[in-house]
Specification:
305 residues, alpha/beta, five-stranded mixed β-sheet
């Protein structure tokens, strides 16, 4: 894991990778961490750049227009990379499905495909898809997915307020929505089912592994002999999947690992301890102390939304 945000000056050479996979940027929404993504794009270079869906949030833009300069800067930076020779591939997701009628076409120097098979430097073949077609809610009950998207947007607003309060107390960034998804039993089961379904797709195609996005849960793991990789998102974890020159794959958290991952590490180290008060549990203690203030923020978010 790496956390390189703010650690490179403008005069320092960018970190070079063979391939970078990013998804779920959700440009056009207030929850998009465009400034962090722009920083990441400025400080990295790669031969291949895969945009693995939900780059632009067409669902939200249809309801209300939101497009600050930072979102335009991200688009311009990607276009500039493509012009300078980076192989940029755009694989639309469910939120930018309006691009899907144009697959197998090029937009300037950017290729648009439904899916791609990427071969790593060490010879592994990886199927690259967004993954929404394996989400039964999106596939069979889009109205429910849109409803959930609205609630998710409110949660992200609350999360921004929450992190403002955390900063006042001297705490670092913490993703409330990521923590809740990780802790809620049904959400955890959904993630597990999604990962298993995607791994099965690769197995049936006799491919070594799969790279996807969609569920905003960065992961690299072996599922019964199939390499499953999820490149995360840029609204919660600010993460990307990168391939090094030797073919090694790694998840980069640009703002540092989320608290639930830190908690997993702590649990392994302190498995025999019954008095832990670190990571996520420390965050929850803070949440309890300032819950009256958060209720005001929630009320304000629901009124403005």
């Amino acid at each position: 894991m790496e956390n390189m945000a703010g650690q490179m000056d403008a005069g320092v050479n960018p970190k070079k990778y063979r391939s970078i996979f990013i998804s779920d940027i959700h440009l056009g929404t207030a929850g998009c961490k465009a400034d962090y993504l722009l920083d990441f794009l400025k400080q990295t270079e790669s031969e291949n750049l895969y945009l693995v869906g939900d780059i632009v949030d067409g669902w939200r833009l249809r309801r209300s227009w939101y497009w600050p300069q930072s979102h335009n800067d991200v688009v311009q930076k990607i276009l500039r990379k493509a012009r300078k020779g980076t192989n940029v591939v755009f694989i639309p997701g469910n939120h930018d499905a309006f691009v899907r009628p144009y697959v197998e076409h090029d937009f300037g120097d950017i290729q648009v495909h439904d899916e791609m098979v990427h071969e790593t430097a060490d010879g592994k073949k990886l199927l690259v898809i967004h993954g929404d077609e394996f989400d039964v809610v999106v596939k069979y009950a889009k109205w429910l997915a849109v409803l959930g998207d609205g609630a998710y947007g409110v949660a992200l607003k609350v999360n921004d307020y929450f992190n403002w309060v955390r900063a006042k107390f001297g705490y670092g960034y913490w993703s409330l929505s990521a923590y809740l998804k990780f802790k809620v039993k049904n959400a955890v089961q959904f993630i597990a089912d999604f990962e298993t379904a995607l791994a099965e797709v690769a197995r049936k195609r006799d491919i070594d592994g799969i790279v996807c996005g969609h569920i905003h849960h960065p992961e690299i793991r072996d599922i019964d002999g199939v390499l499953y990789c999820n490149d995360g998102d840029w609204v919660e974890s600010c993460s990307a999947l990168v391939e090094h020159a030797d073919g090694r794959l790694e998840i980069i958290y640009w703002m540092g690992p989320p608290s639930y991952i830190k908690k997993e590490i702590e649990d392994k180290i302190c498995v025999s301890s019954s008095s832990q008060m670190r990571g996520s549990r420390k965050s929850m203690a803070l949440l309890e102390r300032i819950s009256p203030l958060l209720n005001i923020f929630k009320s304000k978010a629901s009124t403005s939304g």
